[in-house]
Amino acid sequence: MFGLEKPAGQPKPGGSGGLPKMASVGDFTVLSSSIPATKVELSVSCRNLLDRDTFSKSDPICVLYTQAIGNKEWREFGRTEVIDNTLNPDFVRKFIMDYFFEERENLRFDFYDVDSKSPNLSKHDFLGQMFCTLGEIVGSQGSRLEKSIVGIPGKKCGTVIVTAEELGCCRDSVLMQFCANKLDKKDFFGKSDPFLVFLRSNEDGSFTICHKTEVVKNTLNPVWQAFKISVRALCNGDYDRTIKVEVYDWDRDGSHDFIGEFTTSYRELSRGQSQFNVYEVINPKKKGKKKKYVNSGTVTLLSFLIETEVSFLDYIKGGTQINFTVAIDFTASNGNPSQPTSLHYMNPYQLNAYGMALKAVGEIIQDYDSDKMFPALGFGARLPPDGRVSHEFALNGNPQNPYCHGIDGVMEAYYRSLKSVQLYGPTNFAPVINHVARYAASVKDGSQYFVLLIITDGVISDMAQTKESIVNASKLPMSIIIVGVGPAEFDAMEELDGDVVRISSRGKFAERDIVQFVPFRDYIDRSGNHVLSMARLAKDVLAEIPEQFLSYMRVRGIKPLPAPPPYTPPIHVLQTQI
């Protein structure tokens, strides 16, 4: 039947569907990522669709399109099944997509009333469409987005409800502890120094090492420390896959003596401490040689505890909001804004570097903030009317309420303040970091997380104070992104980005790495394609945010709130005449 030729999420080779693509990758191959993506499943329902059939109701189908990053071309991603004779379809077939927090994935849902078996959409009646981003769906309350269907002038086309569900790819970890009894003595002068090696079996019968315990010195009855391992690493999520455990006696020269081995599986281990989890350690060579050989000791499982790793999306689904603040450098080194050489030059035909960085990062983060109100600050300028220098002023001119509506509102306030303030100096970061830190310090319960974007042209003047501010902020629910624009040397910024050496101030180290620095010039596309530049920039600066976010939640022991109850479509009761 029409719509069933192609399962959702599997675009047809050639034809209107284009080549099969990963959901989140456009034409630009550098944007593909080897990191296993989070997969989300999209479910689609509609209410009050247009009725295009004369004698019955419409027979709707939903077609999903994704947009390539470079050329903005829409490509068919997949189709649902057709549901006959309804204006309120709950489509069974799902769309499974790769989800990256740091990428903007534009989506288009088209709806048709199917009139024949033809796969050609132009042969069917168009019922309207809905545009959104994947981030908008995920960032909505309970990851459920409800939007009006548009596209037919003068007609109410109904609404569409899209729900995103993260697909569990075995996010469990286990905490296990083992001990052994009466292991073979391998050392001439002392007892053995035993350790365990865990290996998982592969499809071809070979084994891959997945864990080594520590060495317990000089004992035949060791108790090893408890260790944590992901279920994926232990058995690749296959509970019946063979797990081999080898027991060795440690030797200083690395020629460890083999004591023996046993096999088990995740399913067996998950029974916990019991007679089933006492294993005989067998040395096959000894067993073959000695008739009276029983074993080379026993290994016992002492404890087995399953922990489910929570993801960034679990918190978003539970209602955590991401608050985005922008701080822009208004120091004189940027150059006179009325001159084309200035980094703040307002070119009527294209965004300057500040505008591009702001839009690239802001357009992705705004999907995770329900009120879309963003504080926008400036630093390093002289303000009217008295010319005082400020390192923390509201771009909209209202210090009591520095919030701007949406990224477009921030851009507007930025352009307005360029006309009213005088670029000055020095370049101080600490005041804007402390500004956001004050807000972050007031909500440490995991309900909100703060991201500060600082866009600057140059060398920082208050390095010591900035380091101290960052070390203090590392205890708070916040991350800092610094984008360097212009040709300056940004060596000092690399020091703030704690990727190589953790930042410290007065002997105190930052609790976690919260700063990500990138120079904008690394992202300028030689072909002049600013869309690609912005996509690459956003990808790099935002990629670390989910892990920084999770590191805060983990350190504080904050668990995600349960998601609101899933949406259940209203049941249409048929009233029958008695």
What do you see in this structure?
The chain has 578 residues and is of the alpha+beta class. 19% of the residues lie in helices and 30% in strands. It has twelve helices and 28 strands. Strands 17, 18, 21, 22, 24, 25 and 28 form a seven-stranded mixed beta sheet that branches. A four-stranded antiparallel beta sheet has the order 4-1-8-7.
Helix fraction, binned, reads 10-25%
CATH topology of the largest domain: Rossmann fold
Summarize model confidence as the mean pLDDT: 87
Percent strand: 25-35%
CATH superfamily of the largest domain: von Willebrand factor, type A domain
Output the radius of gyration: 30 Å
The N- to C-terminal Cα distance equals 38 Å
Q: What count of domains describes the coordinates?
A: 3
Which stretches of 5+ consecutive residues score pLDDT under 50? 1-36, 573-578
Q: In terms of structural class, how would the helical and strand content be classed?
A: alpha+beta
Write down the oligomeric state: single chain
Could you name the CATH class of the largest domain?
Alpha Beta
- Main pleated sheet: 7 strands, mixed
What characteristic shape results from the CA principal axes? Answer: flat
DSSP summary, beta strand count: 28
CATH architecture field of the largest domain: 3-Layer(aba) Sandwich
Total of DSSP H or I helical runs spanning 4+ residues: 12
